[in-house]
Write a structure and sequence with these properties.
InterPro entries: PepSY-ass_TM. This is PepSY-associated TM helix domain-containing protein. Keywords: Membrane, Transmembrane, Transmembrane helix. This protein is of the alpha+beta class. The chain has 14 helices and 8 strands. An 8-stranded antiparallel sheet has the order 4-3-2-1-5-6-7-8, with helices on one face.
């Protein structure tokens, strides 16, 4: 009953976030559409400008290196203020042709846009590291809920799937019972995938060492000695067939410059399975990861983020994610109705 409230919030926010990029651009089209021309600023210039404005960063991610030429660059800023009550994500949108900052802020602030605020809410309910742990635990409780529901309704699974169970509309309780049973069965596989991948990606929040690290503010950034543009060229030369989807820019010692993406003949499900890392101090390739050469579980794990977000699919797939993402919330509502009736009868 307690987790049902939060599952409803996770489902609603997750369904909206399936179309985050499309909605963000639609709501902020005038702001985020840039006019090509006049010479593009180098990635290295933007990297050093970001670090100058935010001198204590744990890292930076360029989120849309594959965006059209008339789209602003989107950067995610990884921060740490040393306080557990905050989940320290920031963002910047930059015009690559004149270097102008179009928007900037933390994801706790609605000034960065409601969708960015909602993204962090989906991760941690805007409750910082405790909220992140809470969302992780709810992933487990939902998996347990699906398993126990399967046990309870095991005799109905095939009947529901074959449309052999008739709805009874005589009372609110009968309607809730039929909806709960049918939604639970039809959404069973999707719910397991959705909540297991969410749990797996946030499992780091259960490590005591992570909590300790979040109580120490990020030190002053240590900028890369090598040019970011040169490292990008080197990384692409090392893996020329890679279609780059994400670029990580290091700001602390021990972290490498990194590009990741997919190949032409690979599904977008594996967007995290190929990468090239470059040492930011000497500009040399440190590591090349090819999905086909990785162990089986690592290849499976590479699909977790796309499976959780629906980012691997086109519009019809995303629409399915929107609808299916609402089902856990509906289960919590119908479950609450059934629970309240049993209490009254008891």
């Amino acid at each position: 009953m307690v987790t049902g409230i939060f599952l409803l919030l996770l489902g609603l926010s997750g369904s909206v976030l399936v179309f985050k990029e499309e909605l963000d651009h639609a709501f902020n089209k005038e702001l985020l559409t840039v006019k090509p021309g006049g010479g593009e600023r180098s990635l290295d210039e933007m990297y050093r400008m970001i670090c100058e404005r935010h001198p204590n960063l744990a890292g930076i991610a360029w989120l849309n290196p594959d965006a059209p030429a008339d789209r602003a660059y989107e950067f995610r800023l990884y921060q740490n203020d040393g306080k557990l009550r905050t989940y320290d994500l920031g963002m910047m949108s930059i015009n690559p042709y004149n270097g102008k900052v179009l928007r900037e802020g933390n994801l706790t602030e609605l000034s960065t846009g409601a969708l960015h605020w909602l993204l962090q809410f989906h991760w941690c309910f805007q409750l910082g590291i405790p909220g992140l742990l809470l969302a992780t635990i709810f992933g487990l409780t939902m998996i347990l809920s699906v398993i126990t529901g399967l046990v309870i309704y095991r005799k109905y699974v095939w009947k529901v799937l074959l449309f052999r169970v008739k709805f009874k509309w005589r009372s609110r309780w009968m309607i809730s019972s039929a909806l709960h049973r049918s939604i639970g069965v039809w959404a069973m596989v999707f719910n397991i995938v959705l909540f297991f991948t969410g749990f797996w990606m946030n499992m780091f929040s259960m490590r005591p060492a992570y909590w300790v690290s979040q109580t120490v503010s990020a030190p002053k950034s240590v900028l890369a000695a090598s040019s970011i543009d040169d490292m990008l060229f080197t990384a692409k030369q090392a893996f020329p067939e890679l279609l780059v989807r994400n670029i990580y820019l290091p700001t602390q010692p021990g972290k490498n410059f990194r590009i990741s993406g997919v190949l032409n003949d690979q599904s977008a499900l594996f967007s995290n399975g190929n990468s090239v890392s470059v040492d930011p101090q000497n500009g040399e390739v440190a590591d090349v990861q090819r999905l086909t050469a990785q162990p089986l579980f690592d290849r499976i794990a590479a699909t977790f983020f796309p499976l959780h977000t629906g980012s691997f699919g086109n519009t019809p797939v995303k629409i399915c994610y929107v609808v299916l993402g609402l089902l856990p919330g509906m289960l919590s509502v119908t479950g609450a109705v059934l629970w309240s009736r049993k209490r009254r009868r008891g």
